[in-house]
Known about the structure:
Mean pLDDT: 88
Number of helices: 9
Low-confidence stretches: none
Distance between the termini: 36 Å
Radius of gyration: 19 Å
Structural class: mainly alpha
Largest sheet: none
Amino acid sequence: MTGATLAGAFVVGAMLGSFANVLVHRLPRGESVVAPPSHCPSCQTPIAPWDNVPILSFLVLRGRCRHCGASISPRYLMVEAAMGLLAVAVVARFGLTLEAVRFGLLAFLLVVVVWTDIEHGIIPNAITYPGIVLGLACSAALGTGLSAFEAAAGAAAVFLAIAVGSRGGMGGGDVKLAAMIGAFLGWPAVAVALFLAVALGAAVGLMLIALRLRTRKQSIPFGPAMAAGALIAVFAANDLVRWYIMRL
């Protein structure tokens, strides 16, 4: 894989990250993601193209609006950089293939999920429903459509049972997100992803409680743990399954 290819992947990923920021900001508010054009949330001034370059514009403007000087959330920079790095990782691992497209799309959707769950406590249906369809379509194109459908249905069923049993401890958004992850990953990668999600979610929850940043009665977003588990599974599910089988 050439440096130019990876650099191109980073640029494309950062551009997707810029659009992910639009979705994170607008979807929870019920706003259109198409119109109006990008604008400052504080003064509503439209953002000029040269001030809308992923990563670079934030650094040049030092995280402030050119017109009113209002602070711009560092989330914009983090999302663009994270999506750029994820795109590089996917292309480096899978090359310029349909499989890379599949996992690049999954990474993009998961980045949106993470930040909407952190900032607003929701996982938008506008992400998970199309995500399930895209995941099944990509898997079908790669010849794993049946596995993906079974994984999506099975993951949703398991998390629905957990949601019912927890009596509100897990939301419907998590159930749909599990289905979306299953649609993209298929079996057995989805099992690895969701096992890791539960383990990571429990570990982070216990740590936050121990540090007194949360109480047992406060909800903790589970979307980030599910996204982390899914991304680990993208790159390491096969290795983890082989390691587990060897341990039996």
